[in-house]
Design a protein that fits this description.
The complex is a heterotrimer of chains A (about 350), B (about 325) and C (about 525).
Chain A: H1 10-24, H2 29-37, H3 40-58, H4 65-70, H5 76-90, H6 98-114, H7 119-144, H8 148-167, H9 181-184, H10 194-212, H11 214-224, H12 226-231, H13 236-262, H14 273-283, H15 295-314, H16 319-359
Helix pairs in contact in A: 3-15, 5-10, 5-13, 5-14, 5-15, 6-7, 6-8, 6-13, 7-8, 7-13, 10-11, 14-15, 14-16
Chain B: H1 7-32, H2 39-64, H3 72-89, H4 95-118, H5 124-143, E1 148-149, H6 155-162, E2 164-165, E3 168-169, H7 170-188, H8 190-200, H9 202-207, H10 212-238, E4 240-241, H11 249-259, H12 271-290, H13 298-329
Antiparallel strand pairs in B: 1-4, 2-3
Helix pairs in contact in B: 1-12, 2-7, 2-8, 2-10, 2-11, 2-12, 3-4, 3-5, 3-10, 4-5, 4-10, 6-7, 6-10, 7-8, 8-10, 11-12, 11-13
Chain C: E1 37-46, E2 49-59, E3 64-68, H1 75-82, E4 90-95, E5 98-99, H2 105-111, E6 113-116, H3 128-133, H4 148-161, H5 177-190, E7 195-199, H6 207-222, E8 226-230, H7 234-240, E9 243-248, E10 251-257, H8 263-271, E11 289-298, E12 302-310, E13 314-319, H9 325-332, E14 340-345, E15 348-350, H10 355-360, E16 363-366, H11 370-374, H12 381-386, E17 394-395, E18 398-399, H13 401-414, H14 431-443, E19 449-453, H15 461-476, E20 480-484, H16 488-494, E21 497-502, E22 505-511, H17 517-524
Helix pairs in contact in C: 4-5, 13-14
Classes of the chains: A mainly alpha (about 350), B mainly alpha (about 325), C alpha/beta (about 525).
């Protein structure tokens, strides 16, 4: 392909262009296969198939549509939190306070419920408290200018410290009957959980925002080169602030679902969710240094991890084995792309040397 | 001196203000409960804080180089559990051998963190977030969810922290030993100084031949090593090894560093500040029940202190920057 | 693009300078002593880039050797190989005739090669003593314990030797730019290096400090050390250097004795053509004042800067590194906040709080650091070009792909970006093409005022000419252009008026006619003699 106006320089351009493309895109089948199979979404898809094949061979209970749908109850809350976490990590930040935001929201709802609030008031409280917590984080990160890791490490304790201080070793267990629908209900008479549908709707919205709107484009720009984005008129801190607010809002939504599902609030609710949510995003191919990845990969990661755990549960592996798996996947998900990249760079360098020796 | 305060002076100022803050805190608590400031109680507080001091100093090196180690609590949990179980299974084994095993486990885990960061190029936050879960998970696998309790431990094992020498408990001596060694490392060894270089300016460090890989391995290994030691001390001191030992302890170690004036971005800080920061945390933890506040408040207060200390650090950095700019064109 | 520029492309291919009749003594007289350091056929690849291509360099003890070349010619890469930061792909380095393997910085230090780097390579939070001794702290021989007292005494000795009034305990972050540079020199001395590489050592120094530096260089030469001196300033090269080697586009072009060379011959070797061919001529027809800056200040960076900018004018800004030129422009563009002063557009005062305010007023800014601030490497050309206009081309926040495509095609073709397609990532492009992407991006915003900060830094000669032509065309069309450059010939060749800054103040203003390199350099180093002081 030739770009640029046609003038007497075309000759020079063309020959240069051929050299350049030959270095970058080898058109052989082998090269294409390598490119395809080192694509992260493809790797995730293959792994998902592997999980299905492996566990359905191991146990007849795995491939059961009722089970497969019902098991989504266990991961939709985390999946919902993973959506705004994509934006946070994409712009080069991190939020390790999200599980504590859930604890705070759940506590607020439990308290309101003990005073006799109705279902919709509870939902409103959960969402608003989550949003407020997100704004709190966002304020310290963008307005004061402290590192996100440091701020959210502190708020991790602060947000969970409040329910801890008030509840101690007690719990709120009284919630209105109708409140149970969000985390336990099905769509009409079907077998489809409400929370799954709700997640898919949110995912569609967030996917649209990330890939089709200027907001999403700005997030990518910030993650790749914060300074360059700023020089192009992108208000970097404003976007990062909105990211943290969204993170809080979605954690509030997740808190509603989770509290509704388990029907009680203890200070240790959702403990360890931070790590799992970050794992989902990183496993989905979003680069921790920012700017890379897409929503589709994260959706794949959500189902991969969800069904992996479901399968491990079916063959009676303990919850702790799953924690180990999640931790390992988190590290491998960062380790592997880096490894693939360095191999690609090395191949490119080698080919460059080869072509130049031929040329000489 | 050219009118600009030197390194020593600035550091001193941070440390003196911390000393005053600690004295003020003691005074306030004493007003509510007169018995708080007695030699015996202070010794108890220092004893309680020794483990925090050790692990915070390990964390200090990691933060100094611009990283963070979130896995220290899990390393404490595992090495404590492993040492206690070894002690239970082989009561005839000398206690210091058990101690050594605990320390070696911690060292190995720290080295694993270091290798993932240095060679695998996985950022410290992700590495240690992952290994935090992994180490905690294998603690459960190792113990099969069981505890090791006081009557299953040998006397010698429990004496590791509980014995005393010159009227001061062994645990405090351990704290002093670790502090002294790490002070020496940070001040008088090349590698120790190179940690400052990596945290201050990575490119410049490379230019003068500082190996980032070597230093990364070193800091995580040190952090793991002191956490391993702390695990043994923790289980022996409380005469129990539970699976949740030291959960959330990483926050306290970061807090001690931040309060002690260590820059979270790396490159500046001092051992003395971290020790004072840890003592400050220890006094607060001990003072809560004395002034009739629920121990359940501890988590909230820790978080609030960290946020506040960082806020102070950030704002004073901004103010210092402004002042420097004013001097520049004046 | 008019064809005027394309004539320059004849020289695009790099040929041995000798073939064009230049005197290039490759073989030296046998009377000379054995070389201390020899670089032979050195080649270095980075993925996608050939940074060095068979470079030679021969240096003897007791000589100051100028390493000459434009930005991007490969000097920095060569220095980084000699200091062990990079490992060469091919070729060898000989030290006193035997091969030298430099796997890391320690190897280089042991071999006695020390560099004073151009970039800030200091530890601001650490003391002067430690900055000098980092990497080779003095220790007690038996215990390995760092000997602070000895290091402090030695540091004080070095500082005294250099006649520097600095306390060895001072933190480097409290030092000025020139002082920091002197500490770097002290560091090289502390290594007892036999080869000292100075990468643009004078770029941030005042005239007096430059004299001090020359004294030091001469003393080092008298001590039998070999000095590699990298500089863009010809007066320096002729003042202090004995030999020179010229690189261009990563290739060895030639070498020789400075005493037998002329500025013109060296320039021709550097750029492959002579100076006056480089800059397009045009008729200056500057119109009414667009932008008027009065008393603009930013605490700690610059103070009381006032100037007017006219339609169709190219206003050059010259000064040393750290003089505050970029900071002035960043403030006008809303990246940094001003602490005093006013900015008026068409006679009306405007408030600029952020870059989008500046953009709304028709300003465009091509920043200095292309990789960090200009182009977004991992985004496609199309996304790069449309980023400044992301708001106008969206409806209800949703991107309009069609508009995106048409804008990219229009301006991408206009700038003649060479790429395999508009969807390829910017990091696959050459530096010159990346800069074209940045220019296209701003051109697409239809600016009235174009601010260019070092627009030709690190790009190849052909693209450089194209960029100059572009700037000239823009001005002819009535755009007001501000051109910041550290390359004096570029400023002299392009600008209609030249503002010279020194240490945060506007030092002098010259018209095109009255400006010459001597006057401008004097003003930039704080010795204003001519020109109306603003």
């Amino acid at each position: 392909m030739m770009l640029g106006t046609h003038n007497n320089r075309q000759e020079t351009h063309k020959s240069d262009l051929v050299n350049v493309t030959r270095l970058i895109n080898e058109t052989s089948l082998k090269e294409r296969m390598i490119t395809l199979f080192t694509k992260w979404e493809v790797i995730l898809g293959l792994l998902l198939i592997l999980v299905f094949v492996y566990f359905s061979n191991l146990t007849p209970y795995f491939l059961n549509s009722f089970n497969l749908l019902n098991t989504t109850f266990t991961f939709t809350e985390k999946a919902i939190m993973a959506l705004p976490m994509i934006f946070i990590i994409m712009s080069g930040d991190i939020d390790i306070s999200v599980a504590s935001i859930i604890a705070l929201c759940s506590f607020a709802m439990g308290y309101a419920s003990s005073l006799g609030a109705d279902t919709w008031t509870l939902v409103a409280i959960g969402v608003v408290v989550g949003l407020a917590a997100g704004l709190f984080n966002g304020f310290f990160v963008t307005k004061v200018g402290m590192p996100a890791i440091a701020v959210t490490l502190a708020t991790q304790s602060i947000f969970r410290g409040i329910p801890q201080a008030v509840l101690g070793d007690k719990a709120y267990t009284k919630y209105p009957q109708s409140f149970a629908y969000f985390g336990q209900g099905y769509l009409g008479e079907s077998l489809i959980p409400f929370s799954l549908v709700f997640f898919l709707v949110l995912a569609a919205i967030m996917g649209f925002v990330l890939h089709k709107t200027r907001y999403g484009r700005k997030v990518y720009a910030i993650g790749n080169a914060k300074e360059a984005a700023r020089f192009c008129g992108v208000q970097v801190n404003q976007i990062r602030f909105i990211n943290f607010a969204l993170m809080g809002l979605f954690s509030g939504i997740a808190a509603v679902l989770l509290t509704s599902r388990i029907g009680s609030t203890r200070p240790n609710i959702a403990l360890g969710y931070d790590m799992e949510v970050i794992t989902l995003v990183v496993l989905g191919g979003v680069s921790i240094s920012g700017g890379k990845g897409n929503l589709f990969g994260v959706i794949m990661a959500i189902f991969l991890l969800g069904y992996l755990k479901y399968g491990m549960g079916l063959i009676n592996l303990s919850a702790k084995a799953m924690v180990i798996t999640t931790g390992t996947l988190l590290i491998v998900a960062v380790l592997l792309p880096g490894f693939l990249d360095s191999i690609k760079a090395w191949r490119k360098l080698r080919r460059q040397q080869k072509t130049s020796t031929v040329a000489n | 001196m050219k009118g600009i305060p030197s390194f020593g002076k600035i550091k001193q100022r941070r440390e003196t203000s911390l000393v005053f803050l600690i004295l003020l805190l003691l005074l306030v608590v004493t007003l509510r409960s007169p018995g708080f400031v007695s030699i015996k109680n202070l010794q108890r507080i220092i004893n309680d804080t020794s483990i925090l001091v050790m692990v915070s100093l390990g964390q200090f090196f990691v933060i100094l180089a611009g990283g963070i180690d979130l896995s220290v609590g899990s390393i404490i949990g595992f090495s404590g559990m492993a040492a206690s179980m070894l002690n239970e299974a082989q009561p005839t084994l000398p206690a210091f051998v058990v101690l050594l095993v605990g320390v070696l486990i911690g060292t190995a885990f720290g080295a694993l963190n270091g290798a993932l960061v240095a060679f695998g190029k996985v950022p410290p936050i992700i590495t240690t977030l992952g290994t935090m879960s992994i180490f905690r998970g294998i603690t459960f696998v190792l113990s099969k969810g069981q505890w090791v309790t006081a009557h299953e431990m040998t006397e010698a094992y429990m004496l590791l922290p509980h014995g005393n020498f010159l009227g001061i408990s062994n645990l405090i001596w351990w704290g002093v030993l670790v502090s002294t060694v790490l002070y020496y490392v940070s001040r008088f060894t090349r590698s120790g100084r190179e940690v400052f270089a990596i945290g201050g300016n990575k490119t410049a460090a490379k230019f003068v031949g500082v190996s980032e890989r070597k230093i990364t391995m070193m800091i995580f290994t040190i952090s793991g090593m002191v956490s391993g030691l702390a695990g043994v001390m923790w289980t022996a001191r409380y005469a129990a090894a539970v699976n949740e030992t030291a959960t959330g302890f990483e926050l306290q170690t970061v807090a001690a560093c931040v309060i002690g004036g260590v820059s979270i971005a790396g490159g500046s800080g001092a051992v003395s500040g971290v020790i004072l920061g840890a003592l400050f945390m220890g006094i607060i933890n001990n003072a809560l029940p004395v002034i009739n506040l629920s121990p359940f408040l501890q988590l909230f207060i820790q978080g609030a202190i960290v946020l506040f200390a960082m806020l102070i650090n950030t704002l004073s950095e901004v103010r210092r920057g402004k002042k420097l700019l004013q001097e520049r064109l004046a | 693009m008019p064809t005027r520029a394309s004539g320059l492309l004849l020289f695009q291919g790099t040929r041995p300078a000798a073939r064009r009749g230049l005197r290039v003594p490759i073989h030296k007289e046998p009377a000379l002593s054995q070389p201390l350091l020899e670089v032979k056929h050195l080649t270095k690849y980075f993925p996608g880039i050939k940074a060095l291509d068979g470079v030679h360099l021969t240096i003897r003890s007791g000589e100051v050797h100028a390493l000459i070349g434009e930005n991007g010619a490969g000097k920095s890469t060569l220095v980084k190989i000699l200091t062990g930061v990079y490992f060469p792909t091919q070729g060898e380095v000989l030290y006193e005739g035997s091969p030298l393997v430099l796997r890391n910085a320690i190897d280089a230090q042991k071999a006695g090669i020390a560099a004073i780097h151009q970039e800030a390579s200091m530890f601001p939070e650490l003391s002067v003593t430690e900055n000098i001794y980092m990497g080779h702290h003095l220790t007690h021989p038996k215990t390995g314990r760092i000997d602070w007292r000895k290091m402090r005494t030695e540091t004080q000795k070095l500082l005294d030797e250099l006649e520097l009034d600095i306390d060895s305990n001072t933190l480097v972050k409290n030092l000025g730019v020139a002082q920091r540079h002197m500490v770097e020199i002290a560091k090289a001395l502390s290594l007892h290096a036999k080869v000292v590489i100075m990468d643009e050592p004078t770029s941030a120094l005042s005239l007096r400090e430059v004299e001090d530096l020359y004294k030091i260089v001469r003393r080092l030469r008298a001590d039998g050390k070999a000095i590699i001196f990298i500089s863009h300033k010809f007066d320096e090269i002729f003042e202090i250097c004995d030999y020179y080697t010229v690189l261009r586009d990563g290739k060895y072009i030639g070498e020789g004795k400075v005493s037998e060379a002329s500025i013109d011959s060296i320039v021709r070797m550097m750029v492959g053509r002579s100076l006056d061919q480089m800059y397009p001529k045009r008729n200056i027809n500057s119109g009414r004042t667009i932008l008027s800056v009065k008393g603009l200040s930013q605490l700690g960076y610059f103070s009381n800067v006032s100037f007017d900018l006219h339609e169709g004018e190219i206003l050059g800004f010259f000064g040393l590194v750290g003089a505050g030129r970029s900071e002035v422009m960043r403030t006008i563009f809303g990246i940094d906040r001003k602490t005093a002063g006013t900015i008026s557009l068409d006679g009306k005062e405007i408030q600029i709080r952020c870059p989008s305010d500046a953009m709304a007023h028709g300003m465009a800014f091509v920043p200095e650091d292309r990789q960090e601030q200009g182009v977004i490497l991992e985004m496609s050309i199309a996304k790069n070009i449309t980023l400044p206009q992301i708001n106008p081309i969206s409806r209800f926040g949703i991107l309009n792909r069609k508009k995106e495509k048409s804008i990219t095609e229009t301006y991408g073709s206009k700038m003649e970006i060479r790429a395999a397609g508009w969807q390829v990532d910017a990091d696959t492009l050459s530096g010159g093409n990346q800069q074209k992407v940045v220019l296209a991006k701003w051109l697409a915003t239809n600016p009235r005022i174009l601010i260019l900060d070092e627009p030709t830094k690190g790009i190849d000669v052909a693209t450089k000419a194209a960029v100059h032509q572009f700037i000239s065309d823009m001005a002819s069309k009535g755009l007001a252009v501000i051109l910041i450059s550290s390359e004096l010939p570029e400023v002299l060749g392009m600008a209609d008026r030249i503002m010279v800054m020194h240490e945060g103040f506007l030092q002098a203003e010259f018209s095109r006619e009255e400006a010459d390199s001597d006057k401008v350099i004097r003003a930039a180093t704080g010795n204003a003699s001519g020109g109306g002081v603003a």
